[in-house]
Each structure stands twice: as structure tokens, then as C-alpha cells.
Design brief:
The complex is a heterodimer of chains A (469) and B (515). Chain A contains 16 helices and 20 strands. Chain A is α+β, with helices and mostly antiparallel strands. In chain A, a hairpin with a 2-residue loop joins β7 and β8. The chains are: A alpha+beta (469), B alpha+beta (515).
């Protein structure tokens, strides 16, 4: 109802502004600019420009270059043999974007997506329960971070992103929904989501399995959305408490209250969890299939995202430092950093995953720029994009970013960055990527049949949360 | 700042603690006796500033009423007015507080080295810094004024100390070394082995404040105090823009001069240099700083980055307390006797926040909090036990920055500093907690561990010295009072200026970059 009221008001304003005697082309352009305006969409909206089409092509190159014919998997970094579930989610996002942006035909899409589905329905599982953290893309075996065959455990965050994109794929390409659901039905959710809605990763240490609370404010809430998309309750993971506040550049930033000095675990404030949530879910609650794109029914995430944007713009305005920070790989040691807005006590801190401070390794991160650019149409994101618009090799894909210290390129080319480029461009064209589910599915049928009860802790098999939520 | 103590000497070599006869009037004012008789001001009347001269006149009147001749220490008795003349606690010492002062003085009875007049920074270990020596000088003046020692003993100690200070071997001929052996007055390193390791501008700043207080209060020792400083060369300690520099020796045995001091200590020490005509304008600025809200109080901290520079940006109580009791959060140029006005208002404001956040922590968590740097009785021997440092609230770190939460403590000097400057129910509680944490034969312990594993069983000149100056503040208010007496130092400054300022006092060159 509210949406219609607003539409009417806009239309009235439009009519009075243009009157009756204007030429048709002018009216059309006016109508387009109203339709694409921020009255209806968060951030940028409209068809891709010629340059943006080149951007999309370059990003898709990554997936052409790095697909393994044997498994359909794509490596996490250019020419690397390893893929995580996060990488698979990236690949699915990239395929969907490439199809809708007209980079590939439906037949190309079918070949790729079917190969991916086949892998998901046949891949070996960690302890027969859940996908392993890493797989070898050439033979599909479970591997450890050193690329040696070993089942090491599962990641709840990676699984969350994959679940979200599997849901989006099922919504947009319903002909594959059955096979997607069959893949998900292979998994046991007993360990990864508890009855109170907390998310847990698993790590094998010797003969024992160690469960760890995974994800901190930001990624934890984002990953929880993926589980929610499949009907799981994630009360505990979706709650932003415990958090602390800090004021940076005049903007109040919420950060996870976990103390890295006590826990050894870092809880960085990064851009990506908020921009992914924005583009994929419009900062709506996963069960919200109705609202328009200018209302954000997960208003807490929308607010946190706005702060993460505002603080980076404020740094640019006050200190004239172009800032777009998130976690990303690097071409040199330590090879991966939390390039943070805030972590371990400091604003604008950059640390390795062991907590070593590496301030000279911060980047204007390509993946962060694209997310901010898509979701905020401002002078600041224009300035960011002017800095990173040429950061690609048309034959290989997008580079990781530009060094904040030196202005040089970081030559890493990663799956996630190229997927986010495609995702951002698709968001510009289409808005919120998450859609609606049709009624009735293979999954519903199986779960409704007591004789096919799985004992795998799907939502219908859940007990009430026992301790206080 | 204070001495990091790697090892403790086993044997206690202490001078016989035969304290001379206490002057008669101490008992009187301790009981509050003269107070009732002297106090002419009506209760509840607005506080009127009382000058030092007026106080002395009132003291003389009080003492003559008692049928006594007025010895110097009876100045204290005049403090027994019911109106507040300075922030926090005002008035005579109670019997309990006098007992505490006596216990704290025990430390200095035990640890004076008769050969040099220096006092050990840590009980029984013959080593000290200029910071701890300043704390001793403060203790000595307080002991004299509170009638714990005779004028005779006071003079003997001051002469012994100043004669050593004015013949100290200086670091490369410039300024006092960071550490000295208290038995031999030799330059030593932190292991008390002979050798020179550099100088600390912060330590010297504190010593300059106390030498100035000595000169103003005791003109009879003024020349000796001036001559201590006249040997110093300020060329490398204060640059033309008024930034303070310390010195250390690098791996190639070369001297490196590096900016020293972070918000709080830097400004406090800058006032010491200012008082001696070496203006430290830039060090006196609070910038660069930012604030972080902790329990709803915006706490200022230095934004020079501990990740890139070695120095930690610790926020502790001590620097703000010392600035309050010694300088009344005034500018060094402020000669006014009105202690209820602070001519360095941001310092007074920051100090108040430092107090409020500790009370707020107590109210929110129940943890009794009085934090500052302090010594330990085992490795790592010294921690910065902070309100905020290196990114974290309530951080407790070693000199190297190692997170060491088990050494968090209620520091005795911190608790009593808050008690004397803020008269509140919370500081009443702090007083009750620390008032009896002493060994009558050795002085006050360093502190009480927050996590419940007992007392920090170590005794230091800094802790006991600061405790004495805090008690003196209760009686007298701002400890630095300008007498207007002529000084050798002013004469020396004029000559230095005329002769081209070889020792860089004051700086002739103008500051090059924008202030």
C-alpha cells in the first residue's frame, strides 16, 4: 500500500513537471530516470553502460579461465587448485549474473550449472555429514589448506553463503530446483545449527572434532540469512549482541565485543558482509518476500551497513584517503588480510589472520568498491570507482585492488572479487537478487513424509531451544 | 617513567631508623585541636582564596593561642578551616591520615643512602631514576611540613641530596642519565651495572617541578637547587618548537634523540621545563588526541600510533593526579592563589573524566578501580595498568606491550590520588580499601590485585612519596606556591641569553614549522 502511494506521488510530480507538449523521447527518458531513481532502489539502478559491459566481460573471463572440466569447480584464486563452498557460491552467483547480463547463452549456463549440480550431489562429505572446507577442483577430493588430501571440517559461513545462492538459483531457474534440494538433503544440519539458532564450524584436530562458534558481527549475520532461506531458525547467530561501540571519524561503529586478547580470535569490521547482504537480500529478513527495495526489513543490518559506508566516506572527506576495506587475499605474504575499518582495538587496522599488524598491506579493495558503488550512488562511490575502474586484465579478470600506501596494483585475481563484480553489475540492472519461491517442492515432499524422515535436523525436526535465547 | 626493576637485592641495607623528635605541634593539628579555635570564617560562607602569607599569619595566631612559638610546620594548622579552598579534600590530617603519613615516611627512613643522599627507588635495591628522586623530594618536603621530621633532619637530607645532584656525572655531559646507583651515584643501566643509557625528558620534567617547589618554599635551599639545573644542557631535550625529546643509545652505541611523552605525562612534564624558562609549547598541547567513550565517559587518548611507534599511548591516573596536586591543573605561569580556578582548563576537564570513568566502572561492574602504572613483586616487575591503551579499555600491558591482565591492581597512589582530589562516596571507599595496606616497618604496599590474589608486596619511593605529597595537598592545596623571591636562576638565564645560549636555555631559535 505504501509503495503505491509513493508511486502515485512520483507520477503526479512527473506529470506536472513535464506537461503535455513534450516530445516522446523526452518523456521516455524522464520516465526511465524516475523508474531508476532512488525512490525505488537502493543505490544504482539502470542498464549497463558500454564500459560496465566490458567490466562484466573481464570478470567472467576469470570463470572461463579457471573452470575445471572434470568437476565443474572453479579455483578460489587464479590458477589455484582449491575451492571452498564460498567459491562454489561465487561461481553460482557469477553464472546467474553472466546469463542475465547476456554474457553467456542459456545452453552455456545449463552446461556449467548442471556440472555444478552433479558435483554437489556426488561430492564426498566430511564424516558423511557436511561439505568439507576445501576441495580439489581437478578430482573433487577433500583437501586441507596445504592442498593435501585430508578432511579437515566444515565452515558454517561458507555453507551459509552457498545455501543463500542455491536458494536464489532455485528461485530464478526453477527447472534445477529439484536437484538443488537433493544436494541439500544429503547434508546433516545437526552440528552446524543448534536448536537455539547458533552457527558452529567444525575442525578436526587429530582424532577429535572441535566445534567452534564461527563468524563475528557481520559475516555471522550474513551467513545466518542463508540458513534462514532454507527455513532454519538462527536466533542466536542473527542477534548482533554482544557488541561494543567506537566512534571513528564521527561515525559510531558497532563491533563484536569479543576480546581478541583473551580469545585469540579477531572480529574485524569489514565492508563485504554488509554489501553482500545489501545486494542479495536488500537488508531484508530472509522470510520477507514482499517489501520494495527502499524498505529494509532487517533494519539493524541496514543501519550497520549505512555506518560502514559513512565512516569510509568520512575518512575520505576528512583525511582525503580513498577507503574501501574488507577481507581479501594478497599477492605477497601474509597472503590474506583483514583490511579493516576496525579490528583489535584500532581503526583502519590491517592484520593477518594471525593478528600480525601489516599496515602497509591495505588496499582500496576492488570487491569493496563494487559493493559500495552498487549500493550507494554518491560522489564518494564515484570517486572510488574512478580509482578502480581500470583495475582488470581483459584476459584474466579483476585485480584485488590498489595499494593504499603505494598506489600500485595488487596482482592477485580471485574468484570472490570477480563474482562480486558480476553480482554488483547484476544488482545495478535488477535490484535485490533474492526472489520468491513457488509453492511445493521435492524437499517439502520428502520432509513431510514420516517414512522418509531423515534424522538430519532439518527445520521440521527441530526441538525448542532449551536454554534462554 | 619509574624504574623497571629486573631484580631485587636480597639484603636490606638500611640506615638506623632513629627518627629525631617530632615537633610538638604535630599532635595538635592532627587532632584538629587548633582548627576549632582558629576557624574564624563562618561555616558555609563562600570560599575565599587565602594567600600563603595570610595562612602563615593565621598559623602564627593559632600557635600563639596555644602558647607555642610558631615553627614552620604550624603553617599546616592554618588549613583547618571548614570552607573548601581547593578541589577535593580540605583540612587537617586526621589521626588515621597522620599515621599513614608516618608509615609512608618509614620507606624513606629505610632507603636513604647516607653516602649520596639518594633514596632507593625500590625497597632495598640501590638504584633510582630522576622521577623517583623527584618523588623523594616531594616526600621530604611533605614530611617536613607535616612535622614528621625536624627542620634539622630536613636540611641535612636536602643538602645531601642536592650536593649529589649538582655533582652527578651526566649522560654525555648533557643531562642526568636515566638511572643511577644510589650508593655510588654512578650512571648505571636498568640492571644497575655501570654505564650510561640516555635520559628521560619526562623524568627530568618531574624533577624540575619539585626543584622549583623546593626553591619557592625554602629560599635557603634555592641557590643549591638552581645550581643543580645550571649544569644541564637543554639543547637536545627541548627543540625550538617546544617538543620534548628523550635520548637512548642504539645498537651502534650512537645517541638517538626521540620525541618522548604521551597525553597526560607529556603535558605534565612540559610544565616542569616551562617553570625553568625552557618553554615546551608543543609538548604542552593536548593534540594529537582523540576520545573513546568508556562507560559513557569520553576518555581522551594520544593518537600517536603504538603500532608504528614504540611508545604506548596509555591513559592512567597518575599524570593527572600529579598535575592536580602539584600544579592545581594550572598553567606554569599562573601565580594566583585561587585553587578553585584552573588556568589549564582542558587538563582539569580530562582529569575529571579520568576520575569519572573509574567511578563509572565501579558502578557498572562492581570492580573497585584506581588505575595507574605500578611496580610488581615478580616478573615482569612493572606494568602500565591503564584505563585505555593500545586500542583497549582497561588494558594492562608490560613495557613491551604484552597483555597481562592478571597484574591489574588498585594502585595505592592512584586510589589516594583520586581520594584527595575528589571528595565523593566512591573515593571514601577507595580510602577504606587502601588505608591499611602497609607494613609498619617498610611503608605502603604498591597495590591490591584486582583478581583477588592479594597485595603487590613491593615498596617503592614513588608510591610512598606520592602518598605523602597527596596528604600534604589535603592540608595546603596546590603544592607549587610562588614566593616572588629573587633567584640565581633568573640571573643565570639573563646571562645565558646574552652569551648566545650555549646550553639552549631558553631557546633563541624560532619554531620553523607551524605550531
Amino acid at each position: 500500500m505504501r509503495r503505491w502511494l509513493r508511486l502515485t506521488a512520483a507520477a503526479l510530480a512527473f506529470v506536472s513537471a513535464w506537461g503535455c507538449g513534450v516530445i516522446v523521447r523526452g518523456v521516455q527518458r524522464g520516465a526511465t530516470s524516475v523508474r531508476d531513481s532512488e525512490l525505488f532502489h537502493q543505490g544504482r539502478h539502470g542498464p549497463l553502460s558500454a564500459e560496465e559491459k566490458e567490466w562484466a566481460k573481464a570478470a567472467w573471463k576469470y570463470f572461463e579461465n579457471n573452470s575445471s572440466p572434470a568437476t565443474g569447480l572453479v579455483g578460489a584464486v587464479d590458477r589455484s587448485p582449491a575451492a571452498s563452498l564460498w567459491t562454489i557460491a561465487d561461481h553460482i552467483a557469477a553464472m546467474i549474473a553472466a546469463r542475465d547480463l547476456g554474457l553467456i547463452t542459456q545452453r552455456d549456463f545449463d552446461i556449467r550449472f548442471s556440472a555444478q549440480l552433479q558435483f554437489l550431489n556426488t561430492m564426498p562429505l566430511f564424516m558423511e555429514r557436511l561439505p568439507n572446507r576445501l576441495y580439489n577442483i581437478t578430482n573433487g577430493s577433500m583437501i586441507n589448506p596445504q592442498s593435501q588430501p585430508e578432511a579437515t571440517g566444515w565452515s558454517a559461513l561458507d555453507l551459509g553463503r552457498l545455501l543463500l545462492w542455491l536458494r536464489i538459483a532455485a528461485q530464478r531457474h526453477p527447472q534445477y530446483r529439484e536437484y538443488i534440494e537433493k544436494a541439500v538433503l544429503r547434508w546433516s544440519f545437526c552440528d552446524v545449527v543448534d536448536d537455539c539458532g547458533g552457527l558452529h564450524g567444525g575442525l578436526r584436530g587429530g582424532d577429535s572434532l572441535r566445534m567452534l562458534t564461527e563468524g563475528r558481527l557481520g559475516y555471522e549475520e550474513y551467513a545466518a540469512q542463508g540458513f534462514q532461506a532454507w527455513g532454519f531458525r538462527t536466533t542466536r547467530a542473527s542477534r548482533i549482541e554482544p557488541f561494543d561501540r567506537i566512534r571513528i571519524e564521527g561515525v559510531e561503529i558497532l563491533h563484536d565485543a569479543l576480546d581478541p586478547r583473551e580469545s585469540g580470535t579477531f572480529a574485524p569490521v569489514l565492508t563485504s558482509p554488509y554489501t553482500l547482504d545489501g545486494m542479495e537480500l536488500n537488508w531484508d529478513r530472509a522470510e520477507d518476500r514482499q517489501s520494495n527495495d527502499t524498505e529494509h526489513t532487517d533494519f539493524v543490518m541496514a543501519d550497520l551497513a549505512q555506518r560502514v559506508y559513512a565512516v569510509q566516506e568520512a575518512r575520505w572527506r576528512h583525511e582525503h584517503v580513498l577507503t574501501a576495506r574488507t577481507d581479501h587475499p594478497l599477492s605477497q605474504a601474509p597472503f590474506f588480510v583483514y583490511d579493516s575499518i576496525f579490528v583489535a582495538g584500532y581503526p583502519w587496522n590491517t592484520i593477518s589472520d594471525h593478528g600480525d599488524v601489516v599496515l602497509d598491506k591495505s588496499l582500496v579493495s576492488t570487491r569493496a568498491v563494487f559493493g559500495l558503488w552498487a549500493l550507494w550512488r554518491t560522489a564518494y562511490t564515484d570517486a572510488l570507482m574512478r580509482s578502480t575502474r581500470d583495475l582488470y586484465d581483459p584476459q584474466r579478470g579483476w585485480f584485488e585492488g590498489r595499494s593504499e600506501r603505494t598506489g600500485g596494483y595488487d596482482q592477485t585475481i580471485s574468484c570472490t572479487t570477480n563474482a562480486i563484480v558480476l553480482e554488483s553489475l547484476l544488482y545495478k540492472v535488477q535490484g535485490k537478487l533474492f526472489g520468491r519461491d513457488a509453492d511445493g517442492s521435492y524437499l517439502d515432499t520428502v520432509l513431510a513424509d514420516p517414512f522418509r524422515a531423515r534424522g538430519r535436523c532439518f527445520p521440521s525436526e527441530r526441538k525448542a531451544c532449551r536454554d534462554t535465547p | 617513567m619509574t624504574l623497571r626493576r629486573p631484580a631485587r637485592a636480597a639484603g636490606l641495607l638500611l640506615a638506623a631508623a632513629a627518627l629525631g623528635s617530632l615537633l610538638g605541634c604535630s599532635g595538635n593539628f592532627a587532632q584538629g585541636g587548633p582548627a576549632a579555635k582558629v576557624a574564624p570564617a563562618a561555616k558555609g560562607a563562600p570560599a575565599a582564596p587565602v594567600s600563603r602569607i595570610e595562612r602563615q599569619a593565621m598559623a602564627a595566631a593559632a600557635c600563639s593561642q596555644q602558647g607555642q612559638t610558631p615553627p614552620v610546620c604550624c603553617v599546616s594548622a592554618a588549613a583547618c578551616l571548614s570552607t573548601a579552598r581547593h578541589p577535593g579534600r580540605n583540612g587537617c590530617l586526621t589521626a588515621k591520615e597522620l599515621e599513614m603519613a608516618k608509615v609512608a615516611w618509614r620507606y624513606f627512613e629505610n632507603n636513604e643512602q647516607k653516602e649520596t643522599g639518594l633514596v632507593n627507588a625500590v625497597d632495598g635495591y640501590p638504584s633510582t631514576t630522576m622521577w623517583d628522586t623527584a618523588s623523594y623530594l616531594g616526600a621530604l618536603i611533605a614530611a617536613q611540613r607535616l612535622c614528621l621530621i625536624s627542620t634539622n633532619e630536613f636540611d641535612r637530607r636536602v643538602v645531601a641530596l642536592l650536593s649529589t645532584l649538582s655533582s652527578l656525572s651526566l649522560y654525555r655531559g648533557e643531562l642526568p642519565n636515566k638511572v643511577y646507583n644510589t650508593k655510588t651515584a654512578e650512571k648505571v643501566n636498568y640492571g644497575n651495572a655501570p654505564g650510561e643509557i640516555g635520559f628521560s625528558a619526562l623524568d627530568l620534567g618531574r624533577l624540575l617541578i619539585w626543584l622549583r617547589i623546593l626553591r619557592e618554599d625554602y629560599p635557603e635551599h634555592g641557590n643549591a637547587a638552581d645550581r643543580v639545573v645550571m649544569r644541564w644542557n637543554f639543547c637536545h631535550a627541548v627543540d625550538s618548537c617546544g617538543t620534548l625529546f628523550g635520548a637512548y643509545v642504539d645498537a651502534d652505541k650512537k645517541t638517538v634523540y626521540a620525541q618522548e611523552g604521551r597525553l597526560g605525562y607529556e603535558e605534565y612534564s612540559a610544565k616542569g621545563f616551562d617553570l625553568w624558562g625552557a618553554p615546551a609549547a608543543r609538548a604542552a598541547l593536548p593534540e594529537p588526541y582523540a576520545v573513546i567513550p568508556i562507560f559513557g565517559v569520553d576518555i581522551p587518548y594520544d593518537t600517536r600510533d603504538p603500532r608504528e611507534l614504540k611508545a604506548h599511548n596509555y591513559v592512567v591516573s597518575e599524570s593527572y593526579i600529579l598535575d592536580g596536586v602539584e600544579l592545581n591543573w594550572d598553567l606554569s605561569s599562573d601565580h594566583s592563589d585561587d585553587d578553585l580556578h584552573h588556568s589549564n582548563p582542558w587538563m582539569a576537564d580530562f582529569a575529571d573524566r579520568i576520575y569519572r570513568v573509574q567511578e563509572a566502572r565501579y558502578k557498572a561492574t562492581g570492580i573497585i578501580t584506581a588505575r595507574t602504572e605500578h611496580q610488581l613483586d615478580s616478573a615482569p616487575y612493572f606494568v602500565y595498568d591503564t584505563i585505555f591503551s593500545d586500542g583497549f579499555a582497561w588494558n594492562t600491558i608490560t613495557e613491551e606491550g604484552q597483555y597481562s591482565p592478571r597484574f591489574a591492581a588498585i594502585a595505592i597512589k592512584g586510589a589516594l590520588g583520586l581520594w584527595v582530589l575528589w571528595d565523593t562516596p566512591y573515593t571514601d571507599l577507595l580510602f577504606r580499601i587502601v588505608a591499611n595496606k602497609f607494613d609498619p616497618a617498610k611503608g605502603f604496599y604498591e597495590g591490591i590485585y584486582e583478581d583477588g590474589h592479594g597485595l603487590i608486596k613491593t615498596f617503592t619511593a614513588n608510591n610512598n612519596g606520592i602518598l605523602l605529597e597527596l596528604l600534604l595537598y589535603k592540608v595546603e592545596g596546590k603544592l607549587l606556591r610562588f614566593s616572588g623571591a629573587p633567584s640565581l636562576w633568573e640571573h643565570y638565564l639573563v646571562n645565558e641569553r646574552m652569551s648566545g645560549a650555549a646550553r639552549c636555555v631558553p631557546r633563541g631559535a624560532s619554531c620553523k614549522d607551524p605550531p
